[in-house]
Each structure stands twice: as structure tokens, then as C-alpha cells.
Amino acid sequence: MLKVGKNDLFYYILITYIYVLIFSGWILKISGIPTELSLLIVKGIDYFPICFWVLSNPSFVLSDKVNTFISLKFWIVCFLILILLLITSWVHGEQSILFSIQQWGALIRYIPLACIVYEFQKEGNYWDKFVVHLRYFLTILLFLFFIVWIGGNNVMMFFLPVMSENATGVRESLEGHYSVIFANTIDFAFLLVLLYTVFINNARWSKYRRFLFSILIFIPIVKTGSVISAFVFCLIAGLAFTYRKPMVRVLLGCLLLILVFYLSYKFWYEIQLVVENAKLSRLGMLTLTLPDFLSEMSLDTLFGVGCDGYVVLDKVNSYKEQVHMLLYALPGDLSAFGDVYWVALLVFHGLIGFSLIFYLFYSVYHSTVGKYSDNFFLYRNIVTYLFLSIIIFAFFNQVLVVKTFSSFFWILMGFILSKNTQSVLGNKI
Q1: DSSP alpha helix (H) spans, 69-126
Q2: DSSP labels for 254-268?
Q3: pTM for the structure as a whole
Q4: Alpha-carbon distance 274 to 260, whole Å?
């Protein structure tokens, strides 16, 4: 009789959950289940990590030297941020405590996956098995993309998942962009960037294989229509291909600066027009909203204004210089404001809450970007490039709450932290 240990069981549950997370929307759609019920099921899937983690009887490290998601200190800080958010929301007259909890929960909902992975990875090497499934995911996604690309609109609409009213998949598909089986093109684009980051740092691949792989991934990223994803992809590819070649990086950096200065000089008038128009949208949140919010140095600046859409929009639209995209947003609709996620987090949580959030993510980076490496993957590069991606993406989208990117990101952090910990313990022995 086949016996399955606890860690093996947790691993199989995790893999099953990932497949369900990725493909459930499309499966529910073609199964004929009513849209309302399907959306409820999809939403319920998001609560699985926290429920699974609680039922797994989690334990915490009490050492002061450990500041990442396996430590009690990390979760105390998470709870403190939530308390501050609830107090701020109450002060500003927001009625729904549940809404504030949901907003903060959206940011940390997949961290329990990292905790679960860390625990079972300590007892055995599940990373190699997981990489195999990453290859399966990527192969399936690329296969579906080329089918949709060749098949046209009817095939494209067939593979779109069940989606809510605010999802952009249908509209973007009609505009010639591809989200395949995801509700939004960024779900597809961000996941491709993440998977590319993992496999391009495969130490066993030749330059020729990495080059062909880069072209294969670049095509669907471009077809999603996400310019920022294409930019981040090129940045990661450049860093990966110039790894341990500092002079090449310096030379390419100088050439890029010369090109930027030349194009800026030649098209200065056009650039000014683009910048002025951009100030009416996302750029304006950085150049207008952010300086106004910081310069007033009020209690709102320190503690934030909470997550209520009406309160937030009243705040940012009260400044002398207003961003048109926010001024004409639907009442209470924060979808546009949330796209510049760094600014949104600062307004929601204030300088104090934002600093605590920064501390949490820096502690994860500091703990996972260790010097551990083997003959298979450059783990330090994977962590560095993923955090660089988050920094850039968050100026254009809520990348930390995008389920495809966030779930895989935290799973990777769990594996890599476990490998770093095992390496440190092995060196001590």
C-alpha cells in the first residue's frame, strides 16, 4: 500500500491548488455553471492559502535574527499595520471594517503559501519536482497562446475565463491583446515575466538555448499589449545575459544614456507634449498627488486615510493641482488610483504604515537573497530580478495583489528561503 507522508501530502495539495488557481476560471466557464456562482467559487479559492496554513498547525521562529515570514515578529508587524489601518478608517468615518480587512488581506493573502513551502521543503528536496510543474505551466500557457493567436477571435473568446464586470479581458482581446485563460492581460504578462525570470537563471542552459527561450517568451508578452511588462522583460534579459560581465553592462548603460540624450534632444517638443498629457493620468499621481500629500505633513500624511474609495478620492481631488484621471473617476472607484500602487499604499497607510510594509518586504528580500547557489539555478539572481520587477511594476499596476504573480512569487520565496536556511545550517555543521 502506497504511503504518503505529511510533507508529500502538503506538496501535492499545493500543486493541485496552483493548477486550480490558474485554470479554474476557464473550466468553470465551459462547464456551464452560472456566472455568479462561478465568480463566488473563484473568489473562495483565494481564501484557501490562509485556511490551509491554519489547518497545517503553523509554527513560528522566535529568534530576533529572523525577520521574514517564518518569524512571529513578521506577523506581529502585519497585525500592527492592520490595526493602524482600522483605526485610520474609523477616524475618517468609514463604516465597513470588513472592507479594510479585505484590502490588507489582498496584499498578504498568498504569504501563507511561502510558510507552507518552507516547512515541507526543510524535510526534503521538493524544488526539483516543482520546477518540473513550472515547465508544465509554461508549456501549456505558450501552447494555448499560439492556439489563440492563430485561431482568431472565436478561439480567443472560447478560452477567456469567467470574469467579473471590472475585468478587462474581453475589451483587451477585442483590441488585439491576448490574456489567453486569464481575466486580464496583466495576469498573463506578469506571470510570463516571473516564469522567464526563473528559467533564464538556469545555470545549465547554454547561451543559445537562453536566447531562443527569450524570443519564445518575448512574443506573447508583446502580444499582451503590456508595455511595462515588455520593458521589464528586456531589463531582466539584459541583466541575465550580461551576468558576471560588468564591463559589458557599463558599456550598454553608457550607450543607452547616449541614446536617451540624443532622442530627448531631437524630439524634445514631442516629449514635452507626452509628459504634459501623462500628468493628467498616472504620471500626475507621482508629480502632483504625491508631492501634495507629503508636503502637507498632516496626520493623514503620517497615518494615511484608509482604503475607502470615497474618502481617498475626496482627499486627492482636494489638492490645488488635480489629476484628471482621478477627478473624473466614478464615485468611490479606486481602480485607476490603485494602478500607481506605491502612491496608493502611501495614501492608504501613511508614512508609518508604508514604512512598516517596506520593512516587511525588505526583510523577505534580505533573507532570500543569500549567497546560496547550486549547479542548477542562480537563486540570488532570481530573487533580485523578481524584486526589481515588483519595484517597477508597482508604478503602473497593483502587482502585489495580482493573483498569478503574487501566488507564484511567494511560493518561490518559500523554496529559496528554505534552501538558504539549509545551506547556512549545513555550513555550520
Answers
A1: 72-91, 97-108, 111-122
A2: HHHHHHHHHHHHHTH
A3: 0.90
A4: 15
List for the chain the helix, strand, coil content (%; round to 5).
75, 0, 25
187-238 residue pLDDT tens: 999 999 999 999 999 888 888 999 999 999 999 999 998 889 999 999 999 9
The conformation of residue 364, written as its DSSP 8-state character, comes to H
Question: Grid coordinates 506571470 are at which residue?
Answer: 191
Q: Average pLDDT for residues 21-28, to the nearest whole number?
A: 89
Percent of the chain with pLDDT over 90: 29
Question: Cell 533580485 maps to which residue?
Answer: 384
Task: Count the residues in the chain.
Answer: 429
Helix (H) or strand (E) holding 304: none
Q: DSSP letters of 280-304?
A: TTHHHIIIIIHHHHHHT-SHHHHH-
Intra-chain end-to-end CA distance of the chain, in Å = 37
Q: Please name which of 52, 53, 113 lies closest in space to residue 415, comparing C-alpha atoms.
A: 113
Q: How far apart are CA 324 and CA 393, in angstroms?
A: 22
Task: Name the one residue in this structure whose C-alpha cell is 463604516.
Answer: 95
Tens digit of each residue's pLDDT (9 = 90 or more) over 79-127: 999 999 888 888 877 656 777 888 888 888 899 999 889 888 877 788 9
Structure-block grid coordinates of residue 374:
547550486
Distances (CA, A) of 205 to 220, 322, 379, 386: 22, 51, 15, 20
| CA–CA separation, 424 and 402 (whole Å) | 32
